[in-house]
From TrEMBL, chains A, B:
Domain HTH cro/C1-type: 11-65
Protein name listed in UniProt: Helix-turn-helix transcriptional regulator
Lineage: Bacteria, Pseudomonadati, Pseudomonadota, Alphaproteobacteria, Rhodobacterales
Protein's UniProt keywords contain DNA damage: no
One cellular-component annotation, GO: cytosol
Length: 72, 72
């Protein structure tokens, strides 16, 4: 699995765990909703600053968004 | 500490642990040496694809490069 897809899956997972919509996450992270959607679909190639914004809005450590778990 | 500085410190730390130069890391990651230097200095804002290339060349999981340790 490529790293963009890993980040996308993690963002979606933590967003759903938090029970918020893409709109809400986008607002909290100061990003556009379509951008968040693109990240979740593994289409976007976000920079570490964006990963930091998303992690902050999700309440997780940035490294969690790059974590690849074989079993998940 | 901002996330670019965190990534830079981690890249330098793992590179030095591996005992390779910035040139060697740049070559292995298919990046320019000045770019690797900029990442290590926390000046560059690399994308997750670049973080993946650097992690691969360093032999560590990509999430390790975003890890922030208060004590280190």
């Amino acid at each position: 699995m490529n790293i963009k897809a890993v980040v996308g899956r993690n963002v979606r997972r933590y967003r759903e765990l938090k029970g918020i919509s893409q709109e809400e996450l986008a607002f909290d992270a100061d990003l556009h909703r379509t951008y968040v959607s693109g990240v979740e679909r593994g289409v976007r190639n976000p920079t570490v600053l964006i990963v930091g914004k998303l992690a902050n809005a999700l309440g997780v450590a940035p490294c969690k968004l790059l974590e690849y778990k074989e079993t998940s």
